[in-house]
Design brief:
With 253 residues, this protein is mainly beta. The chain folds into 2 domains: 192 residues, TonB-dependent receptor, beta-barrel domain (Maltoporin, Chain A); 45 residues, no CATH class. The chain has 2 helices and 14 strands. Strands 1, 2, 5, 6, 7, 8, 9, 12, 13 and 14 form a 10-stranded antiparallel sheet that branches. It has a two-stranded antiparallel sheet with strand order 3-4. Strands 10-11 form a two-stranded antiparallel ribbon. The protein is elongated, with a radius of gyration of 27 Å. 8% of the residues are buried.
Length: 253
Amino acid sequence: MREEEATTWTAGAVLQPRFVPGLTVRADWYDIKLKNAINTVTATQLAQLCVDQPTLQNQFCGQLTRTAAATSTAEIGNITSFTVIPQNVASFATAGLDLNVNYRLETASLGNFNLRVIGNYLDKLEFYGTPGADVTNSRGEAYAPKYTVNADLTWQLNALTLNYGLSWFDKTLRYTNQIMTGNPDIVAREYKYVKQLWQHDIYASVDITDRFQMFGGVNNVFGQKPELATLSYPVSAVGRYMFVGARVKLPRI
């Protein structure tokens, strides 16, 4: 097998405005292409790829066995067997924008505040299973939303720490782009998309001593449930749940 060939192009900018001390804004545009990725083709794809190449002396034809002489059941050149193995035939391409905003405010009597927001815009997510194959566009499908945001706000005062977290991504297709293109009426319009994710989490901790800490929190505070006909998307079926615990720092042994 050949080695995979990855091409990565990025461009970024960092802003730290003097008129807002403690604020940092970073934006990164990425464009990643992966060639010769490993994929296993089907028997039908193997036969098609053999004859679609510029010459029959290629990696695909070598995996086919054909009849050398005509028989009562097969003509010359008919495929009698094949070998399917992983090969460097696939390629991937993705591009998008990452935005990272961090703001820290320290006060003399009210404690320290820290706000962090990470957002992503997915511009492209494409997959070519074999050379010359049609592109498989995955943007907007499950686990590949167009927009994603994760944010958390932390407040710390002496031994007390409070945190609020938010996870969000926009609606995604219930079926893949490929299925939707081939059968636009596979589902009623009102069920075309899976709802957005809105998960809110809260967390608190108290340092009782230098070696002992108590903590607890609530995940999925508002109890968002999975979408209709799914068990774990866009959020776990567990729903809202609470937790408590303790951490103990042991002395060195």
